[in-house]
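Need the bound structure for adenosine monophosphate, inputs here:
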Amino acid sequence: MKILVVGGGGREHAIIKKLKQNPEVAHIVALPGNAGIAADAECVNIRTTDIDGIVDYVKRNPVDFAVVAPDDPLALGCVDRLHALGVKCFGPEAKAARIEASKVFAKNLMKKYGIPTAAYEVFDDAKQALEYVQACPLPVVVKADGLALGKGVVICFTRQDAVSAVTAAMVESVFGKSGSRIVVEEYLEGPEVSVLAFTDGHVVRPMVSSMDHKRAGDGDTGLNTGGMGTIAPNPCYTPEVAERCMKEIFLPTIAAMNAEGCPFKGCLYFGLMITADGPKVIEYNCRFGDPETQVVLPLMKSDLLTVMLAVENGTLAETPVEFSDGAACCVMLASGGYPGKYEKGKPIDLGKAPEMAEIYHSGTGRDAEGNLVTAGGRVLGVCCTAGDLKTAVERAYAAAGEVKWDGMMLRRDIGQRALRILEKRC
Ligand code: AMP
Ligand code: GLY
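Answer from helper R.:
Posting the output first, comments after.
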């Protein structure tokens, strides 16, 4: 089979490596891929937001199946366009991708169908939003409605923070059109859990749970990032919590999307907070998470292509989706300065890391001499699996210690919170 994967980050690298475990997969094309993915797939330099370019490519180079991984092309209707060509795809069509692309759509859906989430208000008008945050309880969370590279959410502990966040989104338009409408919501407290789930619009099959580490600095300090590392499974996701999530969140969400006439097929990502009142939805993503995928897929025992085809064909009920009992850890290596300004083009020395861990490339390229260089904020994900979390974390850090480049940055505490929770419980 010839498979197209739209995307070019660590998540796509993990998807491609997993797809390749199926002997039926003869050839994978990645659009645009990256320097690491080039070892596993043919990379063609078409941007993920160039939907016409992607469609044109597929017309000229037919594929048997397409996996559209990032949020932007999903929101722009890439799957709709490929379906129109008769190409089977993994990923939701645009109207279902709104569950991520519009926070207002997601919040209104949850309210209408009684799915637990933070209380909220929606504003289209800056003056009204500013008036509201002058008087609302603190802390408060200000969210741009549209996609904003994971940076459109500001937790405001002071009135001044809230005023600045509203002004940045609605007056200064730092997120472009994505911030012309905002959600202002109640601040929730509790541990966070990411659950990725396969769904064909009827059946939901949650994958092993995971924990992201979104802040740039150790001890969850500093700015929000796309994710500095992950572990799986998440110890806060107990069987009791999982049962409540299935009953109160996962199944009602699938039913709500069907009732709204936009059935969701693909990977639905539930960003959950386990509050004193039970699990609540912080966000939905219409796709695999990055870097959650880098710890979830290595623990998947079932064949990924078989499951993806079952999602597209609506036969997930008959398709087992199994995970191993082990644990995984992914440590992200980032460019100095990320998530702010950073330099690219720094030569990377991988040392012995590739023999010690799975290295998923997020932002890498080649210089004129063909050397591996940095090409993004998040550069590499160093991932290890083991029978237990402590060993997986130790192995991932041992391998990460091998990698060097000028200005490389990493968090030193990926997995520590999870290990403390596990210790307390034992
Ligand atoms: P999001 O992009 O919606 O995942 O938000 C980024 C991060 O902001 C989340 O992972 C949470 O840590 C935090 N966050 C978002 N909404 C809330 C909320 N209502 N209360 C507390 N923290 C939140
Ligand atoms: N790691 C969070 C995300 O993929 O949105």
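Comments: The first strand starts at residue 2 and ends at 7. The chain has a mean pLDDT of 96.
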